Amino acid sequence: MAKRKIKKFREVNSFDNCFFLSFEESKANGLKLKGNWHENYFKNNNPIILELGCGKGEYTVGLAERFPNKNFIGVDIKGNRIWSGAKTALENKMNNVAFIRTRIDFIDTCFAADEVNEIWITFPDPQPQKSRIRNRLTNMIFLNRYKKILINDGVINLKTDSEFFYNFTREVISENQLEEMDATNDLYAKDIEREEALTSIKTYYEKMFSEKGFKICFLKFRI
User: Fold this and answer.
1) Could you tell me what percent of the chain has a pLDDT over 90?
2) How many helices (H) and strands (E) does the chain have?
3) pLDDT at site 23
């Protein structure tokens, strides 16, 4: 298992659709592509959508397949996870996909103001301990980072199996007078019709949680 991880890590570093941002670079000038994703990587002016904590990149690749006129970037700290989505994108010659290996804490050093149109947060660690509130990806510390890079009417989407995390995020939205656009604690309820991209693309974790009987929660909001 360890050898396989090391192999994937090495391969990811050689993929031309993968980029790495270190702690030192984040404190200096940030990612070299910051402010230049359209011109220097995607070679178009199509909207950029991020998947934060992308894991194996199922959502990044799935959305990119369905929306070829948009650009998608998956972000995760673990290279052996990113490997799967990045390799799929390369093999299928998907020019609207990229991945960044870095901490979500550094996201505002990877993009310039107004460079991102939309964000997806898919099945993050809910960090339920009170002492870990600063690590929750929808607390205001993180939301303020996202605000720096999102366009004015940019949207954030959250999918989670944790009703605790779902309720926490709704409280953050309410307390900070943000715009809640959609909210459900049961995404697959039969009496509600949802966008195809919401229900047809399932990450590894979503499949696992659904099989165990967990309801999937969904939130859509603007900062």
Assistant:
1) 74
2) 8, 8
3) 78
CA distances 51 to 30, 107, 131, 150, Å, are 19, 11, 26, 13
The one catalytic residue among 125, 153, 182, 186: 125
Write the CATH number for 203.
3.40.50.150
- What stretches of the chain adopt beta strand conformation (E)? 18-20, 48-52, 71-76, 97-101, 116-122, 150-160, 179-184, 217-222
Assess whether 125 carries a catalytic annotation: yes
How many structural domains comprise the chain? 1
Predicted TM-score (pTM) of this structure: 0.93
Domain carrying residue 40? 2-21+30-222
Q: Which residue has the higher pLDDT, 114 or 25?
A: 114
